[in-house]
Design brief:
Length: about 325
């Protein structure tokens, strides 16, 4: 009760822009870009700080997985508050979770797979220590990225969790591709600590330099990326042309782009976090989800205390919500 009163007081003290952000945490979810898809998944932050348990291991955050569908209440799919990454495969029947109880980037990391129809854990295993891991829905599957922290440079491997096979697409730090894997974009580290984006498995077709985040639409016809403080969308058939962009974007997590060009991105708000933060600076700005499409001049905050979105079809999203009502009853 005390934490709730503190949060209410936080929202009441600040007005104007800040009040808008607080209100969004309770308001009914707006429609995602272009009406389809009508649902998205994200990680609702409950802990934010520098390493949580180890301030020497970098900025960390964890929370619970939430599903949002138009005109439906938010549906929480986990209740453990220790989820770092989550993803649902295209079939919409499983939920992959990446946990890190210690909060340190070196782990231990725990990978779980749950049956969305029953809510039961199908598989749980501890991952090899000494590596940093990320979970991403891309390439028509769910991909586990394994970053080697032991070498002098950043080495990354990617594994298809539905087939348990490694994805071999050349060297990359980050990888995104269309559902049919006919469009492949690799992010390769450059000397500035950011990424050069290349189309295909070679370094012949450069899409953009100095990128921080990027993703490919499910049909492979669009790419969205952040370059400096600009969020841009570009057609794959017009790589040499000028992309559509919006400025003043500060990414703090992943982004997704729909086949229609709508983007949902994890970005930094201008509001301090109203949640407990171990090792964090006072007033550390909180994350949120912003949406934008090339037809708009500004991006809009749609979810506060949220990161790492995944677009879900309306059919799958509504089915998962119905399944969730019966978890624990079987």
């Amino acid at each position: 009760m005390a934490k709730y009163l503190i949060y209410v007081a936080f929202c009441m003290v600040f007005v104007g822009h800040v009040f808008k952000h607080c209100a969004l945490a309770q308001a009914p979810p707006p429609a995602p870009p272009n009406a389809k898809p009508t649902c998205w998944l994200y990680n609702h932050l409950l802990q934010v700080g520098l390493g949580l348990a180890d301030h020497d291991k970098g900025y960390q955050r964890s929370g619970d997985v939430v599903l949002v569908c138009t005109a439906k209440p938010r549906t929480r799919l986990t209740n453990t508050s220790d989820i770092f990454f989550a993803a649902i495969p295209p079939a919409g029947d499983k939920l992959f979770l990446l946990k890190n109880p210690s909060g340190a980037s070196v782990g231990p990391w725990i990978l779980e797979m749950r049956d969305l129809q029953t809510g039961r854990t199908i598989e749980s295993r501890r991952l090899e220590t000494g590596f940093n891991y990320q979970l991403r829905p891309t390439c028509g599957t769910v991909v586990l990225f394994k970053h080697n922290l032991k070498t002098g440079h950043y080495e990354t491997s990617a594994f298809d969790l539905l087939t348990n096979k490694e994805l071999i697409f050349g060297d990359f730090e980050e990888l995104r591709c269309s559902d049919d894997r006919m469009t492949i974009v690799r992010g390769v580290s450059n000397s500035l600590g950011r990424m050069s984006l290349y189309l295909g498995t070679s370094n012949e077709k450069l899409i953009a330099d100095d990128a921080e985040q990027f993703n490919v639409s499910p049909n492979g016809r669009l790419i969205a990326f952040v370059q400096n403080t600009k969020l841009c969308v570009q057609k794959m058939e017009e790589i040499a042309g000028k992309p559509a962009c919006v400025d003043r974007v500060w990414p703090v997590g992943t982004l997704v782009v729909s086949d229609g060009g709508g983007v949902v991105i994890s970005g930094q708000t201008d509001v301090g976090c109203p949640i407990e933060q171990e090792y964090s600076h006072h007033g550390w700005p909180c994350e949120g989800l912003f949406r934008w499409s090339p037809a708009e001049t500004n991006d809009d905050l749609v979810e506060f205390l949220a990161v790492d979105p995944q677009l879900i079809s309306g059919e799958h999203g509504l089915r998962i919500i119905e399944w969730r009502k019966n978890w624990g009853k079987n």
